[in-house]
Each structure stands twice: as C-alpha cells, then as structure tokens.
C-alpha cells in the first residue's frame, strides 16, 4: 500500500445551523494514497460534491463543516487543512490541491483569453517567475493535455466542450499539485471524448505522479480507470474496495444496484435492473441503514441500527470495507 497523501477523518458537513440543519456528509473517513486514482461514486444528492468542496474549504454558505479533520501529507510535513489561515489556504489551493469542476464553460471566464486565465494562476503563486517563463509553462501544459499552443489566445466560446475541459485540466496541473480533485469532469461530453480525456488523465498521472480523487455518478467509468472505489449513499461511505474487487464481488446491495444499471462490455447479455425507489431526503433520513427502504435484502435490524463501515467478517482483506448488516458482511469481531 502506498503512503497516504490525504486523510479525511470523521468528516461532517451540514447545511444550516441548529435543529433545522441538514446533514449532507456524515462521519466520512477516507484515505487517498500517493499516486493513486480514488473513485467516489453515488447517485446525485449522495454528498460527493459537498465532500469535495468541504475538504478544500470551498463550501459556500449555508454549508458548514461541523466536524472532522483533513490531514494533508506534504513533502515538508503534515497539517490539518481545517486549521489553515486564509493566507495559508490560498497557498494550499492550486499549488498543493486543485479542482476540475463539472462545467468547464462556467468555470472559465468567458471574457478573458485562455492564456490570461492560465498565466494568472502561475503569477499568483509564483510572482518571481518571468513573463516568458510563465508563457512557456502554460504552453507546455496545454501541449500535455493535447491542445496546440496557438490556441492560447482563444476565448472559451471558441473551443469545443472537450477542449475546454482539457484546458481546465491543464490549469489544474500547471503548478504540479500533489492532489487533483475532479468533480464529474466528463458529464457533459460524449462517450468518445470521455474516454479520450480519461485516458489522457491516466497518462498524465503516470508522468507527473499526482493523486486523483475522481467524483462521478457513472460507476462504469471508475471500474476501468480507478485504483480504488468508494461508494457513497445518503452522506456516508457504504463500501470501499479495489476497483477490480468491487466489480467482481460487490458486498453492499447499493453497489450491486449501481453495477447492474449499466451493460457489460463483454460476456453474456444480462438484464439491466437498476435500483427501485428514490434517494433519501436528507431532511428526514430513514432510521437505521439509510438504504434499507430500497434494499431487496433488508430485514428487521436494518431499520433500527446504523451499520459501521469496517472490514467484513467474510473477507480477510484490510483493503475492503462495507457498512451492511447482511450475514458475512458485518465487521470482524
């Protein structure tokens, strides 16, 4: 197992304060290792993006981080991101951790050229670098993501959706951060462009050595491109495993439902079943396991007790964890 680069421990995020607060992220513990791609999957509203914005302290009001820590392990030492001052936080973002947002057209300023936006990032963090060196680095990074340097003077609307997303990836990597958080970066693109961008991301990861937290509702993408996958439901992590293990032998009924909602590329045909019902309303979460109203295997205990995320008794594998009361999936005694 690689050494950790980011450790999220007992993390909580609420929307609002007091008795009316909505718990969007509940007691999440997650570790991102150096040089790996960690996938975070779940339906819309499960808390994936809220977790990413909370970890980077980009959560807009009325979002509130109500508990937990986010320990970043840098080459110079470890520190809790939640304790950084505003000045320290500005240095941490982009230089240590960057984000590729879901909508590239909304993330790029439409009235500024691509060159202006990329050079501003470099200038803000490395003011002593000469203008020529900044331009050369921006051009080199665009070339790495498959965009010719002569497109630097283009405006965002003059680029295709795929090119705009590549520009966002280039901006995220221009300072060579240790961690890149990607929040559904390929949702608005066709499947061919999705595969091209993800393949290029894997190539860049191998070349530059950064770690990736990849957030998406499309589990089929993560199975192919990630090292490990964490499944999120109702604000909690309900299963975590290596991508190959999750695909071949998922343990949580919610993970099974997600896997059965897309067709297999190889092997015999199988019926797509999906998941009945709707995601829970965070303002009135079910008691016990939050998935039990939709679970085909639920029994009495599921509606009263909240299962803990832990290594199941049926697996002697510390890389696997699941939060489920089904036989063989409860924690090791």
From TrEMBL:
Gene3D superfamilies: P-loop containing nucleotide triphosphate hydrolases. Residues 6-259 form the ABC transporter domain. It comes from the Bacteria. It holds the Pfam family ABC_tran. InterPro entries: AAA+_ATPase, ABC_transporter-like_ATP-bd, ABC_transporter-like_CS, Oligopep_ABC_C, P-loop_NTPase. Keywords: ATP-binding, Nucleotide-binding, Transport. SMART domains: AAA. GO terms for biological process: peptide transport. GO terms for molecular function: ATP binding; ATP hydrolysis activity. PROSITE patterns: ABC_TRANSPORTER_1, ABC_TRANSPORTER_2. Belongs to the ABC transporter superfamily. PANTHER family: MALTOSE ABC TRANSPORTER, ATP-BINDING PROTEIN, OLIGOPEPTIDE/DIPEPTIDE ABC TRANSPORTER, ATPASE SUBUNIT. This is Peptide/nickel transport system ATP-binding protein. It comes from Kribbella antiqua.
């Amino acid at each position: 197992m690689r050494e950790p680069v980011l450790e999220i421990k007992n993390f909580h995020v609420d929307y609002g304060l007091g008795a009316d607060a909505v718990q969007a992220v509940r007691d999440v513990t997650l570790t991102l290792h150096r040089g790996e791609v960690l996938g975070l999957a779940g339906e819309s509203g499960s808390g994936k993006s809220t977790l990413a914005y909370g970890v980077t302290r980009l959560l807009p009001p009325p979002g509130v981080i109500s508990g937990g820590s986010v320990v970043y392990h840098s080459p110079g030492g470890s520190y809790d991101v939640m304790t950084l001052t505003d000045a320290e936080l500005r240095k941490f973002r982009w230089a240590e951790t960057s984000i590729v947002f879901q909508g590239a057209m909304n993330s790029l300023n439409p009235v500024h050229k691509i060159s202006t936006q990329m050079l501003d990032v470099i200038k803000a963090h490395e003011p002593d670098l000469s203008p020529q060196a900044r331009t050369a680095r921006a051009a080199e990074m665009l070339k790495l993501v498959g965009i010719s340097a002569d497109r630097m003077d283009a405006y965002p609307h003059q680029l295709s959706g795929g090119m705009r997303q590549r520009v966002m990836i280039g901006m995220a990597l221009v300072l060579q951060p240790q961690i890149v958080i990607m929040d559904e970066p390929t949702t608005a693109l066709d499947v061919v462009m999705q595969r091209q961008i993800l393949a290029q991301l894997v190539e860049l990861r191998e070349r530059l050595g950064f770690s990736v937290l990849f957030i998406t509702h499309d589990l089929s993408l993560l199975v192919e491109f990630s090292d490990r996958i964490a499944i999120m439901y109702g604000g909690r992590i309900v299963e975590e495993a290596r991508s190959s293990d999750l695909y071949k032998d998922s343990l949580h009924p919610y993970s099974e439902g997600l896997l059965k909602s897309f067709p297999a590329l190889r092997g015999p045909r199988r019926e797509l079943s999906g998941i009945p019902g709707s995601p829970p309303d965070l303002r009135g979460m079910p008691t016990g396991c939050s998935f039990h109203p939709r679970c085909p295997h639920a029994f009495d205990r599921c509606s009263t007790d909240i299962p803990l995320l832990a290594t199941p008794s049926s697996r002697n594998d510390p890389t696997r964890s699941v939060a489920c009361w089904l036989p063989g999936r409860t924690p090791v005694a």
